[in-house]
Structures are given as structure tokens and as C-alpha cells.
Design goal:
By secondary structure, this protein is mainly beta. The chain contains one helix and twelve strands; from the N terminus they run H-E-E-E-E-E-E-E-E-E-E-E-E. Strand 6 and strand 7 form a beta hairpin.
Length: 225
């Protein structure tokens, strides 16, 4: 007689055999073990703080007024002002939450004085002599308007340079700037207040861009333009 034909068989052919006197089947024990399997908790580490260039700020934060001695950028001379000249001296990047550690392109443009034109000849403008203590005078680009092939009026002077910027979370970075005289004078005198617009642009490698404006003021009688 085969195993499956035994009429006296009392155990479960699938292994559900009760332990004598226990009242609990083997299958129940297996089922209980399955439902009692331990739960393993999985935690995901939070990402590290990222650069906060999207929440940074930029401003000119200091200036100087006085009888200044200003370098001629394309030479070695210094021109002494005969009246009180005002120039910006420091700009500051203010950081938000998260550290900044990026390369940035810094552009400083000194434009022509607003509302002031020269009928003939040319005069000097302003450019950047040093940035954070480094001589950058040779990096300035000077552009005059031309009439019949001759340079006339005041120049637009542009500095473009790149540097690493590292600022801790909620910290600041102040960068000193020294301005000098750009271009040349053809022998004319400027008999009016000259206010030169100064535009600072900082572009981070990640794409965030900030801009700040200020002015350079040269009164009548300064004799430096």
C-alpha cells in the first residue's frame, strides 16, 4: 500500500504534525516565526550643506574722501588732487546659510561721467589699480569714443578678473579696491563736477550673478582729469 493510501495515517502529508501534548502544530510555529520577522529600519543621511551663492548679497561698503594721490594706471606717476575727491574703497559679499567655496569672475566698469561732455580733446577716467592688494592695473581695458580717428571725451574703463571665493555660512568677505587714473589728457581742463558711475558685477561659477553700483566724485579744481 502506498503512503497516500494508508487509511490509518493521522499526520499531515505536508508536515503539519502536532507535537504530542503541545496542542500547537509545526505549521503554526512556522507561520508564527514568519510573522515575527524583525523589522529593519533604514535611515537616509541628510545631504551636506550646499553652497549658498543663491542667497548671497553684494554691496560697496566703504569709501574715502580727501586730497588723494592717484596712480596713473598706464605709467608710474602719481597725480595729487587739488580738491576733495571721493572714491569707493571696499566691497563686501555677504553670505547666507551654507558655505561658499567657488570661483567668481569680478568685473568693475567705470563709465563716463553723466551729463558731462567735452567738445574737444580727451580727459582721464578711472580704473582699478589694485584689488585685494594685488596690482591689476595692466588688466584694465580703456575705451574712448573716436571722431575722425581721434580719441575724444572720457573713457570707459573695464577690469575683468577671476578669483577664488571662500566664505563660511552666514559670514562676509570684504575686498579692498584702489582706484587710479585711466587714459590720458590731451591738454584740456575739466571745469565742472564729474561724477563717474561704477558698476561691480560678481558672477559665480555656478551661475549666480550679483551687481552693485556706486560713484566716484571729482569736484571742480581737483586737477586730476
Amino acid at each position: 500500500m502506498s503512503r497516500t493510501d494508508d487509511p490509518t495515517r493521522t499526520d499531515d502529508p505536508f508536515g503539519d504534525t502536532a507535537a504530542p501534548g503541545s496542542g500547537v502544530s509545526r505549521r503554526a510555529l512556522v507561520r508564527g516565526a514568519a510573522w515575527a520577522a524583525p523589522v529593519i529600519a533604514v535611515s537616509v543621511a541628510a545631504p551636506l550643506a550646499s553652497a549658498s551663492v543663491q542667497t548671497a548679497g553684494l554691496a560697496w561698503t566703504a569709501s574715502e574722501t580727501g586730497l588723494l594721490g592717484l596712480r596713473v594706471l598706464d605709467g608710474t606717476g602719481v597725480v595729487e588732487a587739488g580738491a576733495l575727491v571721493t572714491v569707493p574703497t571696499v566691497f563686501t559679499i555677504t553670505n547666507g546659510a551654507g558655505a561658499i567655496d567657488e570661483t567668481a569672475t569680478i568685473t568693475i566698469v567705470v563709465g563716463r561721467p553723466a551729463g558731462l561732455t567735452l567738445p574737444v580733446g580727451r580727459a582721464r577716467g578711472f580704473g582699478v589699480a589694485t584689488l585685494d592688494g594685488t596690482d591689476v592695473s595692466a588688466q584694465n581695458s580703456v575705451t574712448y569714443s573716436t571722431v575722425l580717428g581721434s580719441r575724444v571725451g572720457f573713457p570707459v574703463t573695464t577690469l575683468v578678473t577671476t578669483r577664488a571665493v571662500a566664505i563660511p555660512s552666514n559670514g562676509t568677505l570684504s575686498i579692498p579696491v584702489e582706484f587710479g587714473l585711466s587714459g590720458s589728457n590731451s591738454g584740456i581742463s575739466v571745469g565742472a563736477l564729474a561724477t563717474f558711475p561704477v558698476t561691480l558685477t560678481v558672477v559665480f561659477a555656478s551661475g549666480a550673478t550679483y551687481q552693485a553700483q556706486t560713484t566716484i566724485s571729482v569736484p571742480v579744481g581737483a586737477g586730476i582729469l
